[in-house]
Prior knowledge:
Chain B: It is an enzyme of class 2 (transferase). In chain A, 40% of the residues lie in helices and 18% in strands.
Amino acid sequence: xxxxxxxLLRRKKxxxxxxxxxxxxxxxxxxxxxxxxxxxxxxxxxxxxxxxxDFSLPVIIVQHLHPASGSYIxxxxxxxxxxxxxxxxxxxxxxxxxxYLASPNYHLLxxxxxxxxxxxxxxxxxxxxxxxxxxxxxxRAYGEKxxxxxxxxxxxDGSKGLKRIKEGGGLAVVQDPxxxxxxxxPRAALAATxxxxxxxxxxxxxxxxxxxxxxxxxxx
Amino acid sequence: MALPVSLFxxxxxxxxxxxxxxxxxxxxxxxxIRLLLDAIYLKYGYDFRNYAKASIKRRILHRMAMSGLQSxxxxxHLSLYDLDFFKKLLLxxxxxxxxxxxxxxxxxxxxxxxxxVLRTYPYIKIWHAGCATGEEVYSMVILxxxxxxxxxxxxxxxxxxxxxxxxxxxxxxxxxxxxxxxxNYQKAGGKESFSSYYTxxxxxxxxxxxxxxxxxxxxxxxxxxGVFGEMNLILCRNVLIYFDKILQNRVIGLFYDSLCRxxxxxxxxxESLMFSEYGRCFEDIVKEEKIYRKKSKY
Lengths: 220, 298
């Protein structure tokens, strides 16, 4: 009971902070990276369809999958979303308003010229694709213009990467462990770095939309 | 003298915010990496200057942390003066991750679509470019044997790294991977019991000697070396993804020149000829498996 109350208060605090920050800071974000593992199918199926057609940032996702998985999840999400959802191809230029998913059995890296690279290097945190690999390279490419989000999952992949994003001046967001289907990945991320926001999936959706609008507003 | 403009903006030379420090560090790091790769090329002739940057940077930073070094410039010095250190770095730069019958559907297509064509030749030359520790080479040999044409084949398995090449020659693999390889083998249309191709001992398996007889393991560097024979089939899977566009194009050109008329080229499942100048010189044979054929005319 007390815990639930605390979480509620904490959430309230974070939402207030989130509003204040997005109003105060005139920083223009250029990309969102998301790391998600167990429970990801449902989480992404909720989060991504809520993003509007004119969402102005690229969304780059590592979802842990079995190495032999096909492209079912991509097709499924593409059908449900107003944004284009596709597998990230090697050397592909990263475009705004597109959702990119890492291919099963390949690491996904972001180059400083804002294109993708793929590798078959050893698994990192038992995973390929690894969230840490995406986050670390994206942090180098986007610096303070990057938002990193850790969602539901059952291991600790992504916590080092989220720390890097924070060190690079970017924004770190973690799904509230109480809201996550599996809470170990969010908890590991929270333990590794002082994150900016702990939000429910629903709040992450509205948060992303406010950022996107903030950008188009500034562009005028 | 070219100094970062930010240092002199706004009249206050010392006004460097945290954010610009991050940018300056990144810029310096990129300069140091270029110098390191130049040094390696000048000293040893290995050319990593056209590798995809993000991955090579990760490897460099990983080695830096593992060796307890403070900067990439320190690594540059060590690479020049300490051969053992350089050898470690060289191993970091080579792509050593491979498995037997990786992507079983690819081997299945190879068996169904390509082998029947190869079967019509009296003598078949196959080049595994960037063979690493050899798992894919032995997979190919097993397939050729089961299709009854191995005796007519000469296989060239090449890599730039002597250490991995030696491992490939030995054909000794950890036993813990065998379960996965067996599943892959069966999915690839394997006709025998997979265990008939190796002998298990302690925690390793050794590939049967009879599988090795027509394989020539040799040192060849895709970046700096040229054509050495006329091939019916070239396999180079998941190597090009490590190169930038310029180098990819060069290497695909090298494959084009090394293939006989109507020869086959197989790339990794996420690789493609789409952006290459040589794209129009090849036709798709099995599109989803990235199996191409050199056109006789284009």
